[in-house]
């Protein structure tokens, strides 16, 4: 499933019409009928429905929805929120058909909102992705009136007033109960400050060719179909060496559990061999609960790993670095040396991100892949930015960072964004608020470590790991736990449930 900006969506429509030969009126008909089918499935013919129709494609979709539902016996009225002079092109064509079929229509004069107040269901087809700047009167007051109601509000493509793209903070928009997105989800469906306006959203297909999306966007949603298409299997003659020898460096006296969870998650996710490199004190505390792992003792100062530690990084197929390591200055050189000396993929997480920040430019010199897994606050630290800036434009910041430092980036959040060094991006939608617990990130790092040592593309492996991590939490919430009591260690145990669903 592709993700698009407003411009990319316009380019896709243009390609479909000019290069493929699809008529715009047909696409509008397809869109309106597809949305109408969804609405009829959640409404009754006893309910009064008001369609708010604006100019452009969104308004045209609204006229098709109204005509389609009217023909099926629904009580429909269209409130046109712009003057007749602004209804042009394909939208004007479908308005004329609606009226020729006897459809009920009135113009919104900016004062009387009777149609909205009397309706049981409001269908918002006013603006879509065409919004530019903040709403002006009379639409601003109309949106305010809609948001004051407790009625079911259904938006078409994008809630009116809501920007389709990232980067905008000031706006007024319809707060939809449901949104039926046309063609492809827009970026704002995945941002913390804009996604709530969509309510529950669902994608409807209108016949746009896949080729048009492939030529226009490099962003997509990573879903179960993607996982099934590339998930690595096991052969009868496989052995422990086949599935990777991984090293996990981290832990300190204050945070031994972080290392423990990464080790256990990597093993549960399918790694063949895993070694934990940490202090002797940490090993003594965690070895009895991680009996399948082996260990390497590192030297410490006051319970924290120091730079006197020598790690033979050449013996491993992949390395995870930083979990529970602490942020003592004397550890930074160890992180720098491991990253520069290792000839295998490295995952940098947690405290490792703080240690590598002064040496970011050195990442471009690595011959093997580097994976970094910051949450927004850590991303802000890496960039020297404000965390709110990251949250408002996560796709842009992630893409620019991954390209600049030649890394794979997992920007964690409600919707985690996985970015390749070339700028390809996928969004993971599995997971739930139960993951808002200490240790969840350590578990994800362990799963990534296991995945990148299997027979699959690096980007696919990282996306699969994020999917498995979130899906484990989803299945646990569905069958055993709640958002309140779920622990990171539960997520490790739930990996098996995910593998059974996709194998």
TrEMBL record:
GO molecular function annotations of the record: ADP-dependent NAD(P)H-hydrate dehydratase activity; ATP binding; metal ion binding; NAD(P)HX epimerase activity
Biological processes annotated in GO: metabolite repair; nicotinamide nucleotide metabolic process
Cofactor: K(+); Mg(2+)
Keyword hit for Nucleotide-binding: yes
Residues engaged in binding AMP: 412-416, 441
InterPro entries documented for this protein: Carbohydrate_kinase_pred_CS (IPR017953), CARKD (IPR000631), Nnr (IPR030677), Ribokinase-like (IPR029056), YjeF_N_dom (IPR004443), YjeF_N_dom_sf (IPR036652)
EC number of this enzyme: 4.2.1.136, 5.1.99.6
Reaction(s) this enzyme catalyzes, per UniProt: (6S)-NADHX + ADP = AMP + phosphate + NADH + H(+); (6S)-NADPHX + ADP = AMP + phosphate + NADPH + H(+); (6R)-NADHX = (6S)-NADHX; (6R)-NADPHX = (6S)-NADPHX
Alphabetized SUPFAM superfamilies for the sequence: Ribokinase-like, YjeF N-terminal domain-like
Domain YjeF N-terminal: start-end pairs: 9-214
Record domain YjeF C-terminal: where: 223-502
Residues binding (6S)-NADPHX, per UniProt: 57-61, 128-134, 157, 258, 324, 375, 442
Cofactor binding, per record: Binds 1 potassium ion per subunit.
A Pfam family per the record: Carb_kinase
Keywords linked to the UniProt accession: ATP-binding, Isomerase, Lyase, Metal-binding, Multifunctional enzyme, NAD, NADP, Nucleotide-binding, Potassium
Keyword ATP-binding: yes
Domain of life (superkingdom): Bacteria
UniProt binding sites for K(+): 58, 124, 160
Protein function: Catalyzes the epimerization of the S- and R-forms of NAD(P)HX, a damaged form of NAD(P)H that is a result of enzymatic or heat-dependent hydration. This is a prerequisite for the S-specific NAD(P)H-hydrate dehydratase to allow the repair of both epimers of NAD(P)HX. Catalyzes the dehydration of the S-form of NAD(P)HX at the expense of ADP, which is converted to AMP. Together with NAD(P)HX epimerase, which catalyzes the epimerization of the S- and R-forms, the enzyme allows the repair of both epimers of NAD(P)HX, a damaged form of NAD(P)H that is a result of enzymatic or heat-dependent hydration.
Family per similarity comment: In the N-terminal section; belongs to the NnrE/AIBP family.
Record note on quaternary structure: Homotetramer.
PANTHER family, per the entry: ATP-DEPENDENT (S)-NAD(P)H-HYDRATE DEHYDRATASE, ATP-DEPENDENT (S)-NAD(P)H-HYDRATE DEHYDRATASE FAMILY MEMBER
The protein's name in its UniProt record: Bifunctional NAD(P)H-hydrate repair enzyme
């Amino acid at each position: 499933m592709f993700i698009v900006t407003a411009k990319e969506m316009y380019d896709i429509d243009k390609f479909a019409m000019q290069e493929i030969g699809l008529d715009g009126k047909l696409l509008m008909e397809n869109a309106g009928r597809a949305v109408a089918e969804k609405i009829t499935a959640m409404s009754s013919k006893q309910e009064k429905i008001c369609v708010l129709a604006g100019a452009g494609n969104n308004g045209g979709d609204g006229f098709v929805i109204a005509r389609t539902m009217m023909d099926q016996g629904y009580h429909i009225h269209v409130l046109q929120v712009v003057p007749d002079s602004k209804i042009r092109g394909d939208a004007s064509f479908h308005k004329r058909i609606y009226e020729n079929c006897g459809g009920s229509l009135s113009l919104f004069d900016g004062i009387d909102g009777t149609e909205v107040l009397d309706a049981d269901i409001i269908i918002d087809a006013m603006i879509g992705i065409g919004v530019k700047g903040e709403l002006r009167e009379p639409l601003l007051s109309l949106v305010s009136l809609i948001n004051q109601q407790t009625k079911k509000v259904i938006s078409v493509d994008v809630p009116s007033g809501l920007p389709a793209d990232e980067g905008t903070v000031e706006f007024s928009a319809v707060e939809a109960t449901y949104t039926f997105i046309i063609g492809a989800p827009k970026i704002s469906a995945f941002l913390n400050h804009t996604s709530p306006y969509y309510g529950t959203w669902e994608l409807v297909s209108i016949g746009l060719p896949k080729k048009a999306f492939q030529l226009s966007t490099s962003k997509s949603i990573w879903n179960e179909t993607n996982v099934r298409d590339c998930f690595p299997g096991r052969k009868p003659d496989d052995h422990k060496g086949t599935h990777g020898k991984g090293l996990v460096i981290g832990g300190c006296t204050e945070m031994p559990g972080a290392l423990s969870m990464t080790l256990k998650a990597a093993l549960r996710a399918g790694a063949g061999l895993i070694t934990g490199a940490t202090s002797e004190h940490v090993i003594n505390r965690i070895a009895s609960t991680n009996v399948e792992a082996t260990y390497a003792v590192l030297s410490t100062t006051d319970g924290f790993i120091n730079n006197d530690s020598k790690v033979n990084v050449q013996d491993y197929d992949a390395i995870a670095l930083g979990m529970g390591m602490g942020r003592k200055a004397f550890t930074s050189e160890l992180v720098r040396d491991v990253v520069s000396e290792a000839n295998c993929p490295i995952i940098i997480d947690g405290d490792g991100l703080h240690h590598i920040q002064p040496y970011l430019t050195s990442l471009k010199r690595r011959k093997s892949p580097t994976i970094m897994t910051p949450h927004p606050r850590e991303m802000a630290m890496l960039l020297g930015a404000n965390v709110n800036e990251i949250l408002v434009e996560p796709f842009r910041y992630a893409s620019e960072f991954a390209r600049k430092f030649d890394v794979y980036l997992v920007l964690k959040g409600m919707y985690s964004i996985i970015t390749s060094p070339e700028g390809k991006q996928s969004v993971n939608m599995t997971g739930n608020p139960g993951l808002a617990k200490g240790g969840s990130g350590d578990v994800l790092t362990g799963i990534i470590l296991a995945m990148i040592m299997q027979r699959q593309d690096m980007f696919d492996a990282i996306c699969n790991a994020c999917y498995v991590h979130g899906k484990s939490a989803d299945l646990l919430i569905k069958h055993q736990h709640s958002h309140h009591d779920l622990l990171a260690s539960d997520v490790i145990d739930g990996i098996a449930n995910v593998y059974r669903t996709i194998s």
